[in-house]
Design a protein that fits this description.
11 strands, 3% helix, mainly beta, 128 residues, 48% strand
């Protein structure tokens, strides 16, 4: 079972940048497609970005496309989320997610909240 640990959250002003990182351990990193989700208050957890094991296929939600970039380092077993031009509505707890090949299903389930293994999350707060 893969274990995920997020880091890099914090407080930033609108228009600023943050870089989140997720370190994976306990299993073969390249066996997993990786993603980021977020949850603001009592809202449902929502998809942000995801990529396949090689990093050759990426998905983004419409709300972050063009501002956020997901990447992975298969040597270091990490996945990162570079967040630029942050907005107050980006404020949320950000969670790292790992999906097996079966769960990923060639990308069909990249945004499915019910699948995968989760980290504990890191808080991102964007002030206006």
């Amino acid at each position: 079972q893969v274990r995920l640990t997020e880091s890099g959250g914090g407080l930033v002003q609108a228009g600023g940048s943050l870089r989140l990182s997720c370190a994976a351990s306990g299993s073969t990193f390249t066996d997993y497609a990786m993603g980021w989700f977020r949850q603001a208050g009592r809202n449902e957890r929502e998809f942000v970005a995801a990529l396949n094991w090689a990093g050759s296929t990426t998905f983004y939600s419409d709300s972050v496309k063009g501002r956020f970039t997901i990447s992975r380092d298969n040597i270091k077993s990490t996945v990162s989320l570079q967040m630029d031009d942050l907005r107050p509505e980006d404020t949320a707890v950000y969670y790292c997610n790992a999906k097996t090949v079966e769960e990923w299903d060639s990308g069909r389930h990249h945004g499915t909240v019910q699948l995968g293994t989760w980290g504990h999350g890191t808080q991102v707060t964007v002030s206006s």
